Amino acid sequence: MTPVLFQNNEAGRDAFTLLASRAVEWIAEYYKNIDGFPVRSQVQPGDIYKQFPDQFPATPVSDDEVFKILQEVIIPGITHWQHPDFYAFFPGNTSFPSIVAEMITAGISAQCMLWESSPAAAELEQRCMEWCRDLLGLPAKWEGVIQDTASSATLTALLTAREWKSGYRISKRGFDGTVYRIYTSAQAHSSVEKAVRLAGFGTDNLVKIGVDKNLAMAPQLLEEAIAHDLREGFIPTAVVSTIGTTGTGAIDPVDALSVITNQYGLWHHVDAAYAGTALMLDEYAHLRKGLEGADSYVFNPHKWMFVQFDCSAYYVRDPELLVRTMSITPSYLMTSQGDKVNDYRDWGIPLGRRFRALKLWMTLQLLGTDAIKARLRDHISLAEKIESLLGHHHSIEMAYPRSFNILSFRIKSSLDSDGRLTKQLSQEINNSGKAYMTHAVVEGKGLIRWVPGQTYTTDTNIEATWTLIQSLLDKIVTR
C-alpha cells in the first residue's frame, strides 16, 4: 500500500498539512526554549550514532515516533547556532523570514541551473545581486551570482585567474610545468589554501605574505615576493586579500593591494565573507576604497545579514572571464534563450543550483535594510561593551584590538606564560553549556574569540556570559 504522504491527492495533501503544521509548531517551540539548551552539544563521539538502527524502516513509522527521536536523540547532538550565547567561529545566522523562505523553496523544489529551468529564480537572483551590490556600495559595473559558500567562491576566483593568466590553456592541456604563484596574508582563511590545492597550483606555490602590527597584509612584502618570483621565472597569478580575517578580524589594505595587482597584472580576489556585510553601514564606507581595482569579491549574507545558510554573494568585474572558465554546454543544456539571459550554472562549479535568491529576497523584504543595519550596530555596540569589560579585568588582556564585533582575549601572560590556562578557560566556557567560544592560535599564542553576532543576542546574554567567565577565572587563576 502506498503511504498517504507519498500521494498527491486530497488525503496526501491533508496529511502533509498536518505534518508541516506540526513542524512549524516544533520550530516555534524550539526558538521559545532555545535558551534552555546547552549552546555546544555535550555528547561524546558515537553517542548519537549508536542510537540509530542499522537500516531504514521498510514501512512508515508514525510521526509521533519521528518527533520523539528528533527531540530525544537528535537535539542533544546539535550545537545551537541560533542560541543567543553562541559566540564561536562566525555566526551562521538566520531569521524567521528566511526560515519561511527556505520552507517555500523546499516546497517548490526547483533545480535552477538554467534560466529556462526556472526564469523567476534566475531573474530574481540577478536583481538581488544588483540590490546587494548597491546596498554595500560596491562598484556599479560589477555583476554577481549566489554561491553556496565563500570557500566555493574563492575556488571559483582562483580557477578563473588560472585560466585568464594561462590564456585558457590549462583547462585544455593541463599544467605544463609552468609555476603559477598565489599570494595571500599569513592570516587568511584556510579556504584559500584549500582552493590553491584543488585548483592544481600546489600548496608549495601559495606564498603567505607577512603582516603588520594590526595583522594586515604588508603591501611592500607582497611586492617584494612578486618581484622575487618574476626573477625566478614563476608566473605571479593572483592575490587573495581579506576584509575581516577569521582570527582577529584584521583588514588588509585593499586599495594598496589593488594598485600592486593592477601594476603587475594579477587577479585580485577580496574575501569579505563575514565582515563584508558591514559595508552597508556608512561608518564603514572607507572599506570600499580600492575595490574598483579588484577583480572579484565575496561576502556571505548567511553570516551577518540574517539569511539562512547557505547563501554566498560572489561578484566579478568581468563576468565574461568567469563564464568562459566555467561554461560547458552539451546539447541537452542548449536553449534558445542562452545569449539573452544569465544561465547561472555557467557562473560557478555545480550544474545543479538551489533557488537561494528567494530567501535573500524574502529576508530583506520582510525585515527591511534599516532594521538589519540597526541590528549590526547593536552587535558592534555589544562588542564595545565587552571590550570595556575585558580591558578592565585584572587577569585578562586583549590579544588584539577589537575589529567590528570580533574580540580576542587571553589570560595575562604574567599569569599564563604558555597559554595553557587560556585554553583551559575556553574549554570550561564551552563545557559549561552556557556559552560557546572559539580558541585559536595567532602568531604562536593562544587566544579566545568572543563574537557577539547571533541574531538574538542582547545585553542580558553578555552580562550572564561575563559573570560565567569571571567565576571560571577565579577558579583557574588561583589553582
Protein model, in words:
The mean pLDDT is 92. The chain has 2 domains: 104-367, Aspartate Aminotransferase, domain 2 (3-Layer(aba) Sandwich), CATH 3.40.640.10; 370-477, Alpha-Beta Complex (Aspartate Aminotransferase, domain 1), CATH 3.90.1150.10. With 479 residues, the chain is of the alpha/beta class. 41% of the residues lie in helices and 13% in strands. The strands form 2 sheets. It has a 7-stranded mixed β-sheet with strand order 1-7-6-5-4-2-3, with helices on both faces. Strands 8-9-11-10 form a 4-stranded antiparallel β-sheet. Helix 8 runs parallel beside helix 9 (254-264).
Summary tags:
479 residues; alpha/beta; Aspartate Aminotransferase, domain 1; 2 domains; seven-stranded mixed β-sheet; four-stranded antiparallel β-sheet; 15 helices; 13% strand
Would you spell out the secondary-structure blueprint of this structure?
Layout: H1 10-33, H2 63-74, H3 96-108, H4 119-136, E1 143-147, H5 150-166, H6 170-173, E2 180-185, H7 190-198, E3 206-209, H8 219-231, E4 235-242, H9 254-264, E5 267-271, E6 296-299, H10 301-304, E7 312-316, H11 319-326, H12 357-367, H13 369-391, E8 396-403, E9 406-411, H14 420-431, E10 438-442, E11 445-450, H15 459-477
